[in-house]
Write a structure and sequence with these properties.
Elements: E1 6-8, H1 22-31, E2 40-45, E3 54-57, E4 62-65, H2 72-86, E5 93-96, E6 105-108, E7 115-117, E8 133-134, H3 145-155, E9 170-171, H4 173-181, H5 189-197, E10 225-227, H6 243-252, E11 270-271, E12 279-284, E13 290-297, E14 300-310, E15 313-321, E16 330-335, E17 341-350, E18 357-360
Parallel strand pairs: 1-7, 2-5, 2-6, 6-8
Antiparallel strand pairs: 3-4, 7-8, 9-10, 11-18, 12-17, 13-16, 13-18, 14-15, 14-17
Helix pairs in contact: 2-3, 4-5
């Protein structure tokens, strides 16, 4: 039986200006889709009566109605998989909400639309009425729990393991195209190339070696892989989180300390003594209600995100990535006296000789 394959929500790859130094470009490519650590990712489920029952037919200007495979048992599988990732001790947490306007991750169960997810921060490019993740078959069937773990891995910023340039996979291209064109996947050649045959850049992948046991690895039937020879008879990952999966996600999202970050005082800069990939967190308690600007200074590539504390947890308010540009990230937002805000700054790399700092004014 041909395997069901998950896919990526195809978003344009980040484009950076030509002429960037190799070290700087490497840092940008590797972290461009990752969340800042300490983010609370809110997720909601669409229901079949009001959301996601009609999807557009590409290139036709028409829509088609699809069946809905959701239900409480399906949702419980997804909830359990969110918990499994969280129980690793990562610094990103997950909270279910009922209002899609409060959710960064919006999950549908459209039968026939496949299983797929946006990758990391790409989810923020989707409209509030759009899914950022879909499950297109029964997750309660034997062996299908790994589908939910896989898609949440994408939501955390992880990419397909078999597309790693370190894998050394030599495909029988036409056999792969033929296999995916038939049931149950019915993929076009473009979709198959994007999700299977396309090689990722070394800086994009989940580690420096191929992990055939990864939850981000697909199973493949005999004859699709020509080399390495031991996988010519097929590749069957276990559908669980591997040791390398856990190491990778903990490296990007290390456990957060239960301490209150230092205050970022308006009109007073705070130096950032960060190394590549490191992060600094601050609190802001505005002395008056007005529009404020939060921004960085210095020759560096950063991601700056502002959260507002609501009901005891940070809610995403605004963010900006200045990676690969000669400009600094500046965010203008209305902050309210009596409320608490969090500013999180992650450094890709510093490429100049000046000091990097953050300021609120």
């Amino acid at each position: 039986m041909t395997a069901r394959y998950c896919s990526l929500a195809q978003q344009p790859a980040p484009a950076f200006a030509p002429g960037l130094a190799a070290e700087r470009l490497s840092a940008l490519i590797g972290g461009s889709r990752m969340w800042v650590n300490g983010t609370v990712l809110h997720y909601c489920f669409f229901d079949g009566d009001t959301d996601g029952s009609v999807i557009p037919v590409p290139g036709s200007g028409q829509s088609r109605r699809v069946s809905w495979v959701g239900g409480e048992e399906q949702r419980d599988v997804v909830r359990g998989c969110f918990k499994e990732w969280r129980d690793l001790g990562i610094g990103v947490t997950f909270t279910e909400v009922g209002d899609r306007s409060e959710a960064e991750l919006r999950i549908g169960f459209q039968l026939g639309d496949g299983s797929w997810s946006a990758v990391g921060r790409d989810a923020l490019q989707f409209g509030l009425a759009e899914r950022t993740m879909n499950f297109g078959w029964d997750l309660t069937a034997p062996g299908e729990r790994g589908t939910a773990l896989h898609e949440i891995g994408h939501a955390l910023g992880m990419l397909h393991e078999h597309q790693s340039p370190f894998a050394g996979i030599h495909w029988d291209d036409e056999a792969v195209y033929a296999d995916l064109a038939g049931p149950p996947n019915f993929w076009s050649r473009d979709r198959t190339f994007f999700n299977i045959l396309r090689k990722l850049a070394p800086d994009e992948v989940n580690g420096s070696v191929w992990d055939p046991q990864s939850i981000m690895e697909y199973p493949f039937e005999a004859g699709l892989i020509l080399e390495p020879e031991q996988f010519h008879a097929g590749l069957n990952p276990p559908g669980t989180l591997s040791a390398a999966d856990k190491e990778y996600v903990l490296r990007w999202y290390p456990p957060t300390e239960p301490v209150r970050p230092p205050a970022l005082v308006p009109f007073r800069s705070a130096p950032l003594g960060l190394g590549p990939g490191e992060q600094a967190d601050f609190t802001v308690e505005p002395p008056e209600t007005r529009d404020y600007t939060v921004g960085t200074f210095g020759d560096s590539d950063t991601v700056v995100v502002v959260f507002e504390e609501r009901d005891g947890e940070p809610r995403y308010l605004s963010g900006l990535d200045d990676g690969g540009t000669p400009h600094n990230a500046t965010i203008r937002a209305r902050l309210v006296k009596g409320r608490r805000y969090f500013v999180r700054v992650r450094l890709y790399s510093a490429w100049g000789s000046g000091e990097t700092a953050v300021m609120c004014w």
